[in-house]
Amino acid sequence: MSLPPPLTLLYVPGDRPDRVAKALASAADAVIVDLEDAVAPGVKDAARGHVAELLADVPPERAVQVRVNAAGTPWHDDDVATVAALPAHVGLRLPKAEDPAAVAALAGRVGGRELHLLVESALGVERAFDLASVAGVASLGLGEADLRSELRVDDDAGLTWVRSRVVVAARAAGLPSPVMSAYPHVTDLAGLAESCRAGRRLGFSGRTAVHPAQLDTIRAAFLPSTQEVGRAREVVERVEGAVAAGTGALVLADGTFLDVAMVERARATLALATHHGQT
Known about the structure:
The chain has helices at residues 17-24, 44-54, 76-84, 100-109, 122-126, 128-132, 144-151, 160-172, 189-202, 215-222, 226-244, 263-275, and strands at 8-13, 30-34, 63-67, 91-94, 115-119, 137-142, 179-180, 206-209, 249-251, 257-259. By secondary structure, the protein is of the alpha/beta class. It folds into 2 domains: 8-222, Phosphoenolpyruvate-binding domains (TIM Barrel, Alpha-Beta Barrel); 226-276, no CATH class. Strands 6-5-4-3-2-1-8-7 form an 8-stranded parallel sheet. A two-stranded antiparallel ribbon has the order 9-10. α2 packs parallel to α3, α9 (189-202) packs parallel to α10 and α11 crosses α12. The protein starts with 7 loop residues before the first strand and ends with a helix. The mean pLDDT is 94.
């Protein structure tokens, strides 16, 4: 089984070398160095230079992505060229993904490195599966600020269907479960925790963060509880025992009916817990 997707992904502005260095040394599972929204137009060239220097020797064990400016902007092509010259494990995060053919062309320009797509429009949502199915795409996610504006949605309830659509599209295309869009209220950790729990129930596997103070709350919300780990272990042990004995189904101690098909979910829970030191 492959490694679980990251639980925490920390955005950091590319025009702040000091913050990039701190982010790379942080406890975030992955770092996203931003050349788009967090960088003002007048300093985008300087930010690109910082990224080229700071990430030139980033070690393979440090998961890193660079969010470039969207296709059609004056900075996109230079951003892509900069990422293409970085170590091969550095991923490219593409905002405002809408066109599968354009994504396929982009994949050919960046040396086979992983592409991480952000869907931020109604058209992108409608094309979510086609985008996720492009060779080279490693993950699919939502950029909810722009999407809220286009859909004229003010609260999370209006995005429930959209979030589920992206989860289903990613899984149908064979990609990992997506991570949630960043929670913008940095000091509201209780609200962040509740939002993360709601996202987890929809099938999301983690979340991007805009501040290091959010990382622990996100991690706690998406890690399985002690009870969930124990139940997953029981499921795996009982189902594997039933298979060895030639039995197709069985019942847990609490009366839950199980069959062989349910064991993969339990194995994924145990893999996640093991990866993050819970077992």
